[in-house]
Amino acid sequence: MYKIAVAGAGAMGGRIGVALHQANYNVTLIDDWEPHVQCINKNGMKIQTETDTYTVKIPAILSKDISDTYDLIILLTKSMQSESMLTHLKNSGAIHEDTAILSMMNGLGHEERLSKIVPLHQIYLAVTMWSAGLKGPGHLLLEGTGSINFQCANGVNNSISTTISKILNDANLNATISKNVFEAIWTKVTVNCVLNPLCTILNQRIGELGAYSQINKMVLLIIEEIVTVAHAKKIDIEAETLLNIITGMYPQSAQGLHYPSMYQDLNNGRLTEIDYLNGQIAKYGQALDIATPINQMLTHQIHQLERNKS
Q: Fewest CB atoms within 10 A around its CB: which of 130, 137, 191, 231?
């Protein structure tokens, strides 16, 4: 039987894993938060939606207890944990020569880092527009709908791409095989590079940020740096389109009432993914001799806040 592991079974990993399990796939959740794993195995995963609350029995293990080999591994750790997790999976024998590694993580540069551990043709990059919340150990909040856009990291889609698409769509995850997933990745990264650090630094919800009368001028300072770097890397994104996407998130009926994930990480004592967002833009800019002072400053400010919370 085709075996699937979700490595990083937090909010989003839990949502994806439960959906696949409910579609009758052989799924194991892998996570290193021991109370979470224990609660799932003892009581099942508690699911809370807009209209219902129920429990799903799904197997979960700590990464140190991996003893199986998987055909598909969906990587949904925090970005800073991805390399150590993938290295551990490889050293534990969880990966064979045809195992597909599907990265659904936020941020840039994952194909560069992960391909040092497994061959590039085994890595698939995904952008997911699903959302999820983790209310406590073994307790997911699942609201709204979404989609997944993915492509093999080497740019060549194949029969495994088709298999992954079928699996995800059997679970009603609305997956599409992309012909250029990098544009989608950079688009989502730009949204995250704007909303995550600004809401975190300013202690504001997305709608509160958007209520500032000069918000477009403020946001464009970040966007224009990112677009310049993207164009130098042959990624076709445009500032006006990106600004419109971000503006569309301000209303309460969209994302206006929400705090972004970086705000939640910081205020729950976790390190943020700033180095894989604005920090990665600054790193690319330095390599390309492109000035990115705004993204550099935002990166420093978030690291200052992390230090103050530690």
A: 231
